[in-house]
Amino acid sequence: MMTEKTLIKEEKTPYKVLLYRKNRTLRLLETFFFLLGFIFVFLRFEFRSPAMIAATLLLAVGVIFVVPAVYRVLFKPRYVLYKDKLVIEIGKKKESYYLTEIQREFDLPYFFQIKNKRTPLLVSDEFLSELNVRLEVIKRG
């Protein structure tokens, strides 16, 4: 039992990471808030006017920087890497995976095959490095 609970790394997803690594929920939230804001901008300003363009650009920048902060507060993403498993907590959902069920994806460094499902991990490069080391140790025996 001692080896199963050996903690290697624990991380609550930093805001900075959410700016450039996104999962489906975060992308949908950004799209929803942008479209909602764009409807307001479209109704408020004359089409293709400089004011509309400026408001649209400000809206886009605002969505890019505000939505990840809201996501972080609402869902509190947390990742815990043990010697033999990975625990992912997002919102009230907590899932645990043995490292033997996880495989690297080679197109983006933060995507992994977990139980044959392509899953983004919203973690720092340091955490990814530790996870990749553990996966290599498991793979090589």
Describe this structure in words.
With 141 residues, the protein is an alpha+beta fold. The chain folds into 2 domains: 7-13 and 76-140, no CATH class; 16-74. It is 49% helix and 24% strand. The protein is built from 4 helices and 7 strands; from the N terminus they run βαααββββββα. The protein has helices at 15-20, 24-44, 50-75, 125-140; strands spanning 7-12, 78-82, 85-90, 93-98, 102-104, 111-114, 117-120. The mean pLDDT is 94.
Task: Describe the protein's topology.
Layout: E1 7-12, H1 15-20, H2 24-44, H3 50-75, E2 78-82, E3 85-90, E4 93-98, E5 102-104, E6 111-114, E7 117-120, H4 125-140
Antiparallel strand pairs: 1-2, 2-3, 3-4, 5-6, 6-7
List keywords for this structure.
7 strands, alpha+beta, single chain, transmembrane, transmembrane helix, membrane, three-stranded antiparallel beta sheet, 141 residues, four-stranded antiparallel beta sheet
Report the average pLDDT across residues: 94
The stretches of 5 or more residues where confidence is low (pLDDT under 50) are: none
Number of helical regions: 4
| Shape designation | elongated
Radius of gyration: 19 Å
Number of structural domains: 2
Helix content: 40-55%
Strand percentage lies at 15-25%
Note the run of SSEs as H and E.
EHHHEEEEEEH
